[in-house]
Amino acid sequence: MKTKSFLETKSDTPAEEQTAPRQRPSALEQAGGTEGVVYSALPALAFVVANSAGGMRVAVIAALSVAVAIGVLRMVRKESVQPAIGGVFGVAVAAGIVWFTGSAKDYFLIGIWASLAGAIAFLASVLVRWPLAGVLWNVATGKGSIWRADKRSRLYYDVATLVLAAVFGARFAVQQYFYETDQVGSLGAAKIAMGFPLLALALLVVAWAARNSNKRLKVIGLLPAKHG
User: Fold this and answer.
1) Which segments cross the bilayer (predicted)?
2) What proportion of the chain, given as a percentage, has pLDDT over 90?
3) Which of these, 218, 31, 209, lies nearest to 126 by C-alpha position?
4) Rounded to an integer, what distance in angstroms lies between the CA atom of residue 176 and that of residue 187?
5) Could you give the CA distance from residue 114 to residue 91 in angstroms, rounded to a whole number?
6) Rounded CA gap, 225 and 174, in Å?
7) Structural domain boundaries in the chain
8) Are the C-beta atoms of 194 and 170 separated by less than 8 Å?
9) Which pTM value belongs to this model?
10) Would you report the helix, strand and coil content of the chain in percent, each value rounded to 5?
11) Mean pLDDT of 181-209
């Protein structure tokens, strides 16, 4: 009975299995999965609950304690601590502002103005014909700026960028209203509800734009067929 050589056996493996590209992690996976999204919301939730129960100082301590505890838990479980470090830093800065101003609502101040900055940046990028959704996606995937040579591709990314601008703009408008009316509890709820869930929807639009742009670029010969 003739046995197959190693090369013959390897050649029997379907080509798509040998050359299957490694899939890029989704936005949810990059955030640490569902667990990571929950972790990111816990310090704000702890702040709001503690502020209602024990006042501003208790709230600051609670938010910092939760952020540090999440970091320690990730270390113990040998998970990536990078998101936790960023979380602790963000909470520490927000807590420092609250401690300095003496106003609990200022815990959310950085996020509010960051949302406004994001909305302006995304909108401005469309106006100058460099939609950020296309720039960031194609830099991340190594395709450079070839997509800008096609008007339809730019239109796809214009739509995705405007959706992102709308998400950040909505965050600013809603949270700024609650900030001006001193509704700390509503601020916390808005921060959580309008955080990753809204961003995930916007990223689906970015993925739609990228997929349609890639198909278009292949059709007109600007992108080799081997690219995804």
Assistant:
1) 56-76, 83-101, 107-128, 155-174, 186-210
2) 48
3) 209
4) 8
5) 14
6) 44
7) 33-102, 103-228
8) yes
9) 0.76
10) 80, 0, 20
11) 91
